[in-house]
Specification:
CATH superfamily of the largest domain: ABC-type transport auxiliary lipoprotein component
Number of strands: 7
CATH architecture of the largest domain: 3-Layer(aba) Sandwich
Structural class: alpha/beta
Helix content: 25-40%
Distance between the termini: 47 Å
């Protein structure tokens, strides 16, 4: 679907055979960007800011055997967008007006988690696959809830973590943080989301530290 139908319909071009491939690629990009053309931009974008930040200067030192890697996180379809979901009832969700993340929540939470583990545990944290050797100690999981519950007027962050160690050793644990009494507006909900996300990240850091 395109929110700006006149612009999409205005793409009138009949290429020759030699230019067909280039035209189709350009047309695909034009249509992909067409959804946002002419739309009212949000007043601001939401992000996550760690309450625990490593100071400038030398970081932790050690070997790869003592490092920990934060893997890419899984998330349900409702979180694979840059909108903030609102649970209306058991069967229905919506998205909060004017609440847009700067990028998908699982990516934001992964970086927050890595920084929090690094700061609170003093361990070397690897958050990229571009390393010569992979640490045997890893954290991955699924970001189950990351939004607002209209019934309780609460922000909820729920993360199912999986920690893998040497050999076939695996541990799992669910972490959760709820901030009640939050008005259903982008500003208050965004601030509460940051608080809850930092709380969960701290819990995970203590668990793996």
């Amino acid at each position: 679907m395109c929110d700006t139908q006149p612009i999409c319909d205005g793409l009138k071009f009949r290429p020759g055979r030699a230019a067909t491939g280039l035209f189709l690629a350009a047309l695909s990009l034009s249509l992909a960007g067409c959804i946002s053309l002419g739309a009212e931009p949000p007043p601001s974008l939401l992000t996550l800011t760690p309450t625990n930040v490593s100071p400038a200067g030398a970081g932790p030192n050690g070997t790869m055997s003592g490092a920990i890697m934060v893997m890419e996180l899984e998330a349900p379809a409702k979180l694979e967008v840059q909108r903030l979901p609102v649970q209306i009832d058991d069967a229905n969700i919506a998205y909060l007006k004017d609440a847009y993340w700067v990028e998908q929540p699982a990516r934001l939470f992964r970086r927050l988690l890595g920084e929090t583990i690094r700061t609170r545990s003093g361990r070397i944290v690897v958050d990229t696959a571009e390393v010569a050797a992979m640490p045997t100690d890893t954290v991955r999981g699924t970001l189950r809830e990351f939004g607002y519950d209209a019934r309780s007027q609460s922000v909820i962050v729920r993360f199912d973590a999986i920690r893998s160690g040497a050999g076939d050793q695996v541990r799992t644990r669910r972490f959760e943080s709820i901030v009640p009494g939050v008005a259903a507006e982008a500003g208050p909900v965004g601030a509460a989301m940051n608080t809850a996300a930092n709380d969960v990240a701290g819990q995970v850091a203590d668990w793996v530290g």
